[in-house]
Automatic annotation (TrEMBL):
Top-level taxonomy: unclassified sequences, metagenomes, ecological metagenomes
Protein name: RecT protein
């Protein structure tokens, strides 16, 4: 057992240790943590798996608080459980792989043409994109898929994830690749629209000074009469007492 793993056995105060480890993980930016709470979650994962943070970062990445597994880590996990794979195509137009496990063999593929009829390659909310595709119109493509290399990486990650998920679900255990997780976040993000004026419009509007309301003279006279009556009553009481 390496010293980097045995350190978990020598921890005297687990709460303080995990909090400190979480801070270091967050500040290192290895996993894409945005808060120290996310770093603590990864620290707990390290302790539970009894592996150092660097080893965890080789397999996993954090996308908007969700733990994702890299495609090459999925393939490594497939080999660890006795599976095999063969790369059939790895291009910007087609990703294809053949996976074998327990004498069962299956081919998985995804082309760029097929991906273009799915909502995850376009900008906007998934429901809106599906409506546009169903009506025959083409939504705006995400900028990251405008280049061949990014398309190649996305197609490969998705076909690997799909294949390993079918043939070795115990390897992925419900996690997705970073490429898939990023697209899930993108297509489910909602844009909040308001019908009111923008900040710029508000800034241009003249500041309205408060208008002083005129005081009714009748109200003043009535209040003064009430005060005079109270004073006379008080004076009468003093005289009577004398």
């Amino acid at each position: 057992m390496g010293n980097d793993v045995a350190i978990y056995d020598r921890v005297q105060n687990p709460t303080e240790f995990l909090a400190a480890l979480g801070r270091h993980i967050t500040r290192s930016r290895m996993f894409g943590c945005e808060t120290e709470d996310q770093g603590v979650v990864l620290a707990l994962e390290c302790a539970a798996r009894r592996i150092p943070p660097l080893a965890l970062s080789q397999k996993y990445h954090l996308i908007k608080g969700k733990l994702s597994m890299k495609a090459d880590a999925m393939l490594g996990g497939l080999i660890d459980v006795g599976g095999k794979y063969e790369v059939i195509s790895h291009t910007p137009d087609m990703a294809a792989i053949e996976i074998t496990r327990d004498r069962k063999k299956q081919k998985f593929s995804l082309s760029w043409e097929e991906a273009q009829v799915e909502p995850f390659v376009y900008l906007g909310k998934e429901a809106d994109i599906i409506k546009q595709l169903a009506s025959g119109s083409k939504p705006n493509l995400k900028p990251k898929y405008a280049t061949p290399r990014s398309r190649m990486q996305m197609l490969w990650a998705r076909v690997v994830s799909d294949g390993v998920r079918v043939m070795a679900p115990d390897v992925v255990a419900g996690t997705y690749t970073p490429e898939e997780q990023e697209d899930i976040v993108d297509t489910t993000a909602q844009v909040i629209e308001t019908s009111g004026p923008t900040l710029a419009q508000v800034a241009k509007q003249p500041v309205q000074q408060p208008v002083e309301q005129p005081i009714e003279q009748a109200a003043i006279d009535a209040e003064q009469a009430e005060i005079d009556a109270d004073m006379k009553e008080a004076e009468a009481g003093v005289v009577a007492g004398a």
